C-alpha cells in the first residue's frame, strides 16, 4: 500500500515537472511592470532623480549620481522589458538584485521592515507606533473638513512607512530567478539554449 502510494506520488511529481516553468513565468510577469515603471520614472525625471541621488543633505548622497541613475534606471527599464519574453533573465537578475540591495540599504533601512505603517504588526517599530496618532488625527481632519466617505470609497488612508519590505521581496524574487532562469518552455532563454545544444549535438 505504502509502496504503491509512493510510486503514484513519484509519477505525479514527474508529470508536474513539465510545469516547473510556471513559477518563474509568474514571477517575471509580476516583476516586469514594477521594474519598468521604476526605471522609466528615474530616467524620465533624470535631473530631479540625479539631485536626489547625489544630495547628501536631503537625498541619498551617492557618488557619481548621473551614472548611478543611468545604471539603476537602465537596468530596471531594460531588465523589466526583457523579463516579459524571458530573455537574459539570469544576466539581468544580477544588476537588479544590486539595485534592490542599494535601495534597501540607502532608502528604506532606517524605516524598518514595514512598507505600510501598521501598529498591530509584530514588525512595527517606534516610527510605526508613532504614526498611529498622526493617522488618527489626519482622519479626524478629513471627517470634519472633507467628504470622508468619498475620499475613502476606494480604500482607507494609510501612512507610507517606506521600509525594506518591498525591496527585500523583490531581491529574493530576483535571486530565485537567478537560479531558476526564465523557466522551461516559457522563456526565450530556454529555447535559445535548447536549439544551441540541439545544433551542437548534430555537429558532434
From TrEMBL:
Keywords: Cell membrane, Membrane, Transmembrane, Transmembrane helix. InterPro entries: DoxX, DoxX-like_oxidoreductase. It is a multi-pass membrane protein. One of its GO terms (cellular component) is plasma membrane. It is found in: Cell membrane. The keyword Iron does not apply. The chain crosses the membrane at residues 21-40, 60-84, 91-109, 167-186. Its main location: membrane. The keyword Transmembrane applies. Belongs to the DoxX family. This is DoxX.
